[in-house]
């Protein structure tokens, strides 16, 4: 599965959360291990 998301944000600290309760799961066991290749960019430049 592949997804590309755009979040309009302002300069400064940003906190992102990953949900633990995923539809189809029978408890708060969100598979965060399946998250790979997360890349952040700003103005066309990849952020470290």
How do you describe this structure in short?
The protein is largely without helices or strands.
Describe the protein's architecture and organization.
With 48 residues, this protein is largely without helices or strands. Helices cover 0% and strands 8% of the residues. The protein is built from no helices and 2 strands. Strands 1-2 form a two-stranded antiparallel sheet. It is elongated. The mean pLDDT is 83.
Observed structural traits:
about 50 residues, little secondary structure, 2 strands, elongated
Average of pLDDT: 83
Strand order of the largest sheet: 1-2
Compute the CA-based radius of gyration.
14 Å
Shape: elongated
Main beta-sheet strand count, sense and barrel state: 2 strands, antiparallel
Strand content: 5-15%
Helix content: under 10%
The number of helical segments is: 0
How far is the N terminus from the C terminus?
24 Å
Helix and strand composition category: little secondary structure
Order of helices and strands: EE
Report the uncertain regions.
none
What's the β-strand tally?
A: 2
Assembly context of the chains: single chain
């Amino acid at each position: 599965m592949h997804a590309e998301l755009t979040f309009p944000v302002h300069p400064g600290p940003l906190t992102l959360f990953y949900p633990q309760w995923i539809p189809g799961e029978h408890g708060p066991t969100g598979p965060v291990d399946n998250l790979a290749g997360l890349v952040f960019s700003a103005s066309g430049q990849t952020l470290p």
